[in-house]
Amino acid sequence: MRHFIIIAGLLCLTVKADEGMWVYTNLPKAHLKSAYGFEPTPEWTEHLMKSSVRFPQGSGSFISANGLVLTNHHVAMDYLHKISTASRNIAEDGFLATSQAAEIPITDLELNQLESIEDVTKQVEGSVRAGMTTDEATAARRSTIALIEKESKDQTKLLSQVVTLYQGGQYHLYRYKVYKDVRLVFAPEFRIAFFGGDPDNFEFPRYNLDMTVVRAYENGKPAAIKHYLKWSTEGAKADELVFVSGHPGKTNRLYTVDALRFMRDVRIKYVLDLLRRREIALLLYGSTGAEAKRHSQDELFAIQNSRKVYLGQLKGLQSNEIFAQKQSEELELRAQVAADENLRHLGDAWSEVSKAQKAHNKILVKRGLLEQMHAFNSQYFMMARTLVRLADEKQKPNGDRLFEYQDGGREVLESTLFSPAPIYEDLEVAKLSESLSLLAETYGYNHPLVQKVLNGKDPQTVAEQAVAGTKLGSVAIRKLLAGSSPAELRQSHDPFIQMALAVEKQARSVRAQYDAIVETELQAYSRISQALFAVKGTSVYPDATFTLRLAYGSVKGYRTGGADVAPMTTLGGAFDHEKAHGAVDPWLLPESWHKAKANLDLTVPFNFVSTADIIGGNSGSPVVNRDGELVGLIFDGNIQSLTSSYVYDDDVSRSVSVHSAGIMEVLKNVYHAADLVKELGQ
Amino acid sequence: MRHFIIIAGLLCLTVKADEGMWVYTNLPKAHLKSAYGFEPTPEWTEHLMKSSVRFPQGSGSFISANGLVLTNHHVAMDYLHKISTASRNIAEDGFLATSQAAEIPITDLELNQLESIEDVTKQVEGSVRAGMTTDEATAARRSTIALIEKESKDQTKLLSQVVTLYQGGQYHLYRYKVYKDVRLVFAPEFRIAFFGGDPDNFEFPRYNLDMTVVRAYENGKPAAIKHYLKWSTEGAKADELVFVSGHPGKTNRLYTVDALRFMRDVRIKYVLDLLRRREIALLLYGSTGAEAKRHSQDELFAIQNSRKVYLGQLKGLQSNEIFAQKQSEELELRAQVAADENLRHLGDAWSEVSKAQKAHNKILVKRGLLEQMHAFNSQYFMMARTLVRLADEKQKPNGDRLFEYQDGGREVLESTLFSPAPIYEDLEVAKLSESLSLLAETYGYNHPLVQKVLNGKDPQTVAEQAVAGTKLGSVAIRKLLAGSSPAELRQSHDPFIQMALAVEKQARSVRAQYDAIVETELQAYSRISQALFAVKGTSVYPDATFTLRLAYGSVKGYRTGGADVAPMTTLGGAFDHEKAHGAVDPWLLPESWHKAKANLDLTVPFNFVSTADIIGGNSGSPVVNRDGELVGLIFDGNIQSLTSSYVYDDDVSRSVSVHSAGIMEVLKNVYHAADLVKELGQ
To answer: ipTM of the assembly?
Structure first.
């Protein structure tokens, strides 16, 4: 039987080895020493932290003194598409810069490198006065956070973000150096980056060269980097201790039993239905021609990836196994809380969560369609929404604004809104018409809101006319509109501005309801956290928040379906795997690999698994050994790891990496990337 | 603007030309004479009727004195898969019998050929006594129908089915000769049968050789056929009058405005969500290997086809256009009814329909999941359901049984239940686990019914264990169980029998509710029909019922998106179309075509469109000219025809056919099918 260890499982006497996504300021030093005989020094820790890089939706690391950054092909793919054209398909065919001058500037890509972490819990909580209502307390915290971020930014010029940890138990200020000039150095062919495609995604054994190398520039020159990871020639070895330094996006390991039920029975179903709609719509669109396929491919893979994640989660949750464990742990903690008069005031936190789930259930669909724009799946609409809100929000004091319109997020907002990246009009029509149909299907075509948006026409016609009529394709127009007053904006005849205005009132209303629910939940989980702290002490890691974390574990296989799965695959295995699947797409290796086969050492390791505790957002994270050398590159988890959003299990759940020796072997003998190899010291 | 003409549109003074799926006993002779100067003789009519053939899910026609039958590749595809193996993929690679002895017997395929039509309205209605409740009247009609069918079968040995026409306005007894020994003569490669695949499906211009030729046998010898269609060498010509003789499945042209709304806002959404789930599940399953793909392909295409149909319907219905027209016609008829004291008693029929829609709305999901088995998508489950019901139903008098268990349907039931066709266990697991998850997602995992079925396990595990544990794969076991008493059956430990029993009570209960709703609707539409008859006379065609109908129209192009679409494509166009799409799947012509290209007359017509009024079920129908010669083979409608379930429109809606000259050209010069060509008199 699979044995699930969860954060509430810290109530158990024994903590399962290798669990946790640890904050750099609170590493599990005692455990690392006792279990692995390893003691991270402050220098080791600072070096690894500063070598780590955050991508907009993933992780990476500096790997040379001249600004080389390693990440996954799938983390960079969105950007590879943006710099691809019909005649030069970099996302599909790969790229190797023949010289530094030939490196291609990447539209929109910004990298963050963490410089410091500061605990600002006292300042944030200090702004809450006795007698304040919950709403007032929230507003006070938000306003203080906005102030702290602004002051830090003004003083240090660094990107400054306050992060809520432990469900409000702590607030940390993270300061990042931002690199805005990033250029492409190397990407392999899509076929080998995503060898096995959707069917092999989240499976192991695997054979993927899921890597891309970019270079950070400053003032038009390669950035001079002090902290970067040394490349390990040998790479990861079986059973050795490894560390993963990256940015896990979101976990929910404190979820109550009721919250898990809500996830299983309501939220995942909603999301999966939406993903299936979008997947089919993109498949249909992509089937209309080669260019359509190229334009929609990236989004399609992202959707298929999510679909597989949620199906995996659902499978894990649709069983009594997780729930029985969760339930007994929850009952035990609640009994301890009830028995301790100092904790008794925390006792209704669980029912507060349940109440919040019920309230969320009522607005889930409305929020999805209107506020999350599931009924308006369009880049133009997203821009229109931003412009409409910006006009209103900028009238308010910084602390009163919706958080994404506060000064701290201004740069991100503007770089998105003013991005010169191409918008594919046919794709916009396909996505918008499909999602407008969802609106009509959900509320009924005759519903006043639907009629307000569609005005008696069919979704396809409305989408075609809106896309044909909008001026939002022009960055200059968007900049102009971003300067508008609310009154000016309301006079715009742009069909997307009109569409955004048509649902703005309802969208804002459901947003406000949702924010209140989230705040209630946050307060309740904060109290559950307090109960846990009181019972188990503070040697606990916080849920993931897309901030830098350190995970650790062993390179180790696992047993499933009655068979042992070895921890490593080899380059030769990729050729065998291709053959076993008849060498048809998506199991077709690139020509470059076939040509190079005779020159390759086929016994070199290619991919490997470890027990390190990771989740989405960790993609592109470096895997390092005790000496801080790069031995691998995280790119996936196995299918058994998909419930790790809620629970950790080191029995069969594994993270999947590309091996540093495999990368080097193919850089040398498939891609003949002599300059790159040399810069990596090999 | 598109001009919709609908059955309620018969209220208009002018009937649009070419509308209607006419019963052979009530052809629109006056209109044919005035519009086309054509008068069908009794001989012409009988010959065409008796040359027509019904397939289990489509249409066909006799084309030689020795039993040759022409239909679509996609109508036969299910059967082509059944006779395919891993080493001989007939469904994919095609087949040509080198001699009569080489013709391959096709598992499970039975053909029906209509021998006679008899009006039995008086007998059926005569069984209804004054003072009976609606339920009693329904039971009386059903019981009489069952009796008529049984007596006819006993007397004539012909398959005898009573069909309800005009929503209960008439009852006709159809008698069919059944051919049970059917063998494959010719099928082209899947690539050319379905050239352009899902993207081109329902589009025009088209280039599909969507044909298959089988032969009916009697007593081990080719059946001697008196009525068969002569092959037209020249084939269909632009603007000529053509007839389509086939089996349109179902239309709903009497639907009230409320019924159309219910369709648009509720039913189509439910069906599309289900189809998307199944499409993705089959895509995932098919991606696991070549055999998995082969086993699931047929079902996948059927689902994609349905998905495209419903998306097309939805698009047509999500607009005020159809509704404005429908609404004004409905108001006009209701005003006439209200103004006429002889009709006034029919006036509440529309609100009866609305009430029925509301009642249907309440049980739609429950009926779908439990009675329609959407939560148990498995052949094993379907067999278990049949066995469980059979045990109970056979205890009852014939007339009291659920209709599919009455004696008239016994042969169909048994040929399905005892079919020796292979069942693919992995596919069963994939489909069942996905649908059990739907059950859990819909009701919530902890719902008593879900727990009864899943018993605390996850859907995947339940599906795996059920498929591994069942004995229903054996025809002998199924025959044994079919002889069981209800008590014996309840003692079976077979996991599928247990699963079917677990939901039987709820399924039967919702079935009874649904049957009552259908009966109410039928009564209401019957009254609306009466009102129509009273106002417009009886020169109206009934909604489609998968019985033989005659449609007619002209070979004629149309105008869409500001451009004219010519009525015909050529063989050469197929090669151009392949090139325009980069010669990648699904736009890849078979090798045989590339090899033969130089010998082909590329100017020969390949596909063509006509205004004949058809719908799903017409696939495989012969298209004949005034002389009763076969000039084409129906295989599709264009995308604009997808709302023809509800309305007919001869402006842009078209049926799509393969051209008889194109077929002959490739039979001769691509497939070198000399014997077949000779047998067709060419």
So the answer is: 0.81
